[in-house]
């Protein structure tokens, strides 16, 4: 079964934002989705949810058939509160916080390596494309899940900068971490995401790349909104 199979062109406006972890995709995707009044797909959350669900149901990561079945049928929901807070539920339980832990991230990157799992999650991801539009954030949104998206962005940043962002975030949460260890983790996560056979992380040929290493969130947002204005999605600032 090929995960590179093409999908039917979607009539809904889809903006894909791909890139490695820590490049700022999540933050920028949410800001853009809010600005445009579009839906938002955090595709990494689906892999994280599958990692959590497999742990809860004692599905071994070697049992690919059971993992794929779980991927297709797991009971999940995403909600955005009126204050903009985003929460994720697995089987009715709010797992938003558990989803972001390093353990869950590791499980996610393991399940994400199986082509069968990726195929099982493909339709679920595509079903987020509903009017008026979708901002889809991930690793293969522009290459595999929404290859016909009219706007594709690829956000990147140096491993040192991404590790330093994570370092500050963890320090803010009171966690004691080592920066060199985080740089190492970022590098090995990149290595796994970019070198796996199934839908590896890479920029789509028609994606616009933005290196966010020395840019603030505001600068990246302005740059993206400018690009969207040029393409007619938002008025010129
Ligand atoms: O973006 P994130 O850190 O929440 O993603 C968790 C894992 O899922 C990460 O190792 C890469 C993988 N992933 C993927 O393979 N494809 C996607 N579209 C999104 C995430």
List keywords for this structure.
single chain; 237 residues; alpha/beta; Rossmann fold; 5-stranded parallel sheet; 3-stranded antiparallel sheet; 16% strand; globular; disordered N terminus; binds 2'-deoxycytidine-5'-monophosphate
- DSSP strand (E) fraction? 15-25%
Strand tally is 8
Total individual domains = 1
Structural class: alpha/beta
Distinct small-molecule ligands in the complex: 2'-deoxycytidine-5'-monophosphate
The CATH topology is: Rossmann fold
Please give the order of strands in the largest beta sheet.
2-6-1-7-8
What shape does the CA trace take?
globular
Largest sheet, if any?
Answer: 5 strands, parallel
Output the CATH homologous superfamily: P-loop containing nucleotide triphosphate hydrolases
* Second rung of CATH, namely the architecture: 3-Layer(aba) Sandwich
Radius of gyration: 17 Å
CATH structural class: Alpha Beta
Uncertain ranges:
1-10
User: How many individual helices?
Assistant: 10
Helix content: 40-55%
Average pLDDT reading = 91
Alpha-carbon distance between the two ends: 46 Å
Question: How do the helices and strands follow one another from N- to C-terminus?
Answer: EHEHHEEEHHHEHEHHEH
């Amino acid at each position: 079964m090929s995960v590179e199979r093409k999908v039917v062109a979607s009539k809904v406006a889809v903006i894909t934002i791909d890139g490695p972890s820590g490049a700022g995709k999540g933050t920028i995707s949410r800001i853009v989705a809010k600005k445009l009044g579009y839906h938002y797909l955090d595709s990494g959350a689906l892999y994280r949810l599958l990692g959590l669900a497999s742990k809860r149901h004692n599905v071994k990561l070697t049992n690919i058939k059971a993992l794929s079945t779980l991927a297709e049928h797991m009971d999940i929901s995403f909600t955005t509160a009126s204050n903009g807070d985003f929460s994720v539920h697995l089987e009715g339980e709010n797992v938003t916080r558990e989803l972001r832990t390093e353990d869950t991230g590791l499980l996610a990157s393991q399940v994400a390596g199986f082509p069968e799992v990726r195929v099982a999650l493909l339709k679920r991801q595509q079903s987020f494309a509903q009017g008026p539009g979708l901002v889809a954030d991930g690793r293969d949104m522009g290459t595999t899940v929404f290859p016909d998206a009219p706007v594709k962005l690829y956000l990147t940043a140096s491993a040192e900068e991404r590790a330093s962002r994570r370092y500050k975030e963890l320090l803010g949460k009171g966690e004691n971490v080592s920066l060199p260890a985080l740089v190492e983790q970022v590098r090995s996560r990149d290595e796994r995401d970019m070198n796996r056979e199934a839908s590896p992380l890479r920029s789509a040929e028609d994606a616009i790349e933005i290196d966010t290493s020395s840019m603030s969130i505001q600068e990246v947002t302005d740059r993206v909104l400018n690009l969207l204005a040029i393409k007619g999605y938002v008025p010129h600032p």
